[in-house]
Structure formats: C-alpha cells, structure tokens
Amino acid sequence: MNSIEQRLQKLEQNLRFYKITLVAVLLIGSFFLITSFRLNQADVSNLVKAKEFQVIDDQGKVLVDIKNDTYANAGEIKVINKYGNEIIDLYETSYGTGSMLTKNTNGNNACWIGNYNDGSGKMQVYNVEGKLVDEIGSNIVKNGNIICKNVDGNSIIEVNSTTNGNGILTINDNKGNKRISLGSSDNNDGGFWAYNRNGYLIGNVGGTSSGDGALVVYNSYGGNLNGVWPK
Description:
Elements: H1 3-43, E1 52-56, E2 62-69, E3 74-80, E4 86-92, E5 98-103, E6 109-115, E7 121-126, E8 132-138, E9 144-149, E10 155-161, E11 167-172, E12 178-184, E13 190-195, E14 201-207, E15 213-218, E16 224-228
Antiparallel strand pairs: 1-2, 2-3, 3-4, 4-5, 5-6, 6-7, 7-8, 8-9, 9-10, 10-11, 11-12, 12-13, 13-14, 14-15, 15-16
C-alpha cells in the first residue's frame, strides 16, 4: 500500500470518526435542547415571587409599583400617572384591613375606601383641594350613615339612625351646630325639630302618644310657650 492509499484510508477513518462524533454531538445537543425546552415549560410558573415589581413606560417612568410595605409588612400597589403623581394606592390600614385611595392629577386625595377600626366599611370623598367633604359608613348601632362637610371640615348634613333603627336627617349650620332634625319618634311617628342659633329647641312638629298631630313652640331658652293638640 503506497503512501497515497494510506493517506486516503487514514482520511476515510478520520471522516468516519468525525461523522460519528458529529452525529453524537447532534444527538446529545438535541436531547438537551428538547429536555431543556420541556423543563422550561415545566418551570413556567403561574406564580412570580419578588419583593417589588414595577411597570414602566418607554421612557423608563414607573407607572405601576407593586411591593412589600416593610412598615406594615403587607402588600401595596401604586398606580402613577404620566406626570409622576400617584393616583391609586392599595394598601393595608393600621387596623390590618384593606383600603384603596384614589387621587386627582395633582396628587390630592379624591376618594378613600377602607374600614373603621371595628371592621365595618367606610368611604370618604375629598374636594379638588384634597379636603374631606363626604363620608359614608356605619354608626355605633351598626346602621348606615352619611355625613356631608363644608370646606372648613364641619358637618352640615347628617343622615343617620336612632338606636331603634329609625332614620333621622340633621341639618347643621356652617359651624357644625344642629339646626333642623327630621325623623321618626319612638312611636314611629314623623317628626320635625328646629333649633335656634344658641342650640335650644324652639319648635317641634310630631305626633302624640295616640298618633294625633301636635305642634309645640319654645322660647329662646327652650321653655315651652304653647302647644297645639287635637281636642
């Protein structure tokens, strides 16, 4: 066998070796690729765990911030507008209950939904300056109530209930002092009560114990001046 034949034979052997090696590498690579793909599919979890997660726009501004509030040790979600002002905040209250705060474009409070310390629901509405003007919730006897306030923070209208569950409407002056009350008596008769600037009752329209109508007028200090009852 001459040198050329030897070289061809050696080259053929090398080619056979390289072919076997290449096939083996391809098989091994394919195996790892397939198993890796399957593992990746298996690793795609429905749960993503992180201490903080942010959604940003094309300029890198944070639009949504989901994180752990380390002070309350609870989750918190904030939504931020294009001006960089926080407009929605979902967080835990000091009572351990959930709450949501919405804000206007300037970042002032607009509406808050949460709880009283007894766990009952509560909603507060703020004006454009961020001052509390309305409040909806429940009273101490677990009935609903609505409070409207002026810009000074004084209650001017209150929708509430008596201890036996009757409704009552109270109208106050700009200082928060009661001036008119509309509601039901303990006998479930309708009633109207008027108060003067000093807080004394000066007029009452309602019903007698037998259900007849009655009108009572008082002096400036709450003394009974006259009454009108059916004869």
